[in-house]
Amino acid sequence: MDIPRHSIVIGKQRTSLSLEQGFWDALREIAKGHGKSMTAVVNGIFAHRTRKNLSAEVRLFVLDYYRCQSRGQKLDSRTAQILGIENDPSSDRPVLMTLRH
After folding, report:
1. What is the DSSP letter of 93?
2. Alpha helix (H) residue ranges in 34-53
3. Could you say which DSSP state residue 55 is in?
4. Distance between CA 91 and CA 18 in Å, rounded?
5. What is the pLDDT of residues 32-84, one digit of tens each?
6. pLDDT of the residue at 35
7. Within a domain: 75
8. What is the predicted pLDDT for the residue at 2?
9. Among 45, 69, 80, 99, which residue has the fewest nearby CB atoms (within 10 Å)?
């Protein structure tokens, strides 16, 4: 099974990500839920990456996001920075979007 390639702009350069449709859809849902464009989120992931493989970084970002959501935990600082939000250290309330089905 081939993994689809998705076009995206990083900085001013067009590139593509090899990303399964489920991860692409989840990334779109996260971005929309936080009022961000997919391009903005991917650029944030790119700016905070710890690996050379951007597709792997996107998968791990999506996985980390939904792990926090399922556990009712706050986002880690890196994920919050990527989304341009701040976790309030005095609050026990997680900073997550509400999923709508």
Report:
1. S
2. 38-47
3. H
4. 37
5. 999 999 999 999 999 999 888 999 999 999 999 999 989 988 888 888 889 98
6. 93
7. yes
8. 83
9. 99
Q: Is residue 95 part of a domain?
A: no
In a domain, 19, yes or no: yes
Q: Are 95 and 77 in contact (CB under 8 A)?
A: no
* Rounded-to-integer distance, Cα 45 and Cα 30, Å: 13
Q: How high is the pLDDT of residue 54?
A: 93
> Helices H, strands E: what count in the chain?
4, 2
Instruction: Return the structure tokens found at 95.
Output: 């900073």
Both tokens of 46, joined, read 């790119």
Between CA 55 and CA 3 the distance in angstroms is 11
97 in a domain, yes or no?
Answer: no
Are the C-beta atoms of 37 and 31 separated by less than 8 Å?
A: yes
pLDDT at 5 over 50: yes
Q: Which two tokens stand for residue 38?
A: 């997919």
Instruction: Convert 57-76 into a string of H (helix), E (strand) and C (coil).
Output: HHHHHHHHHHHHHHHCCCCC
Q: Which residues constitute the domain of residue 22?
A: 5-83
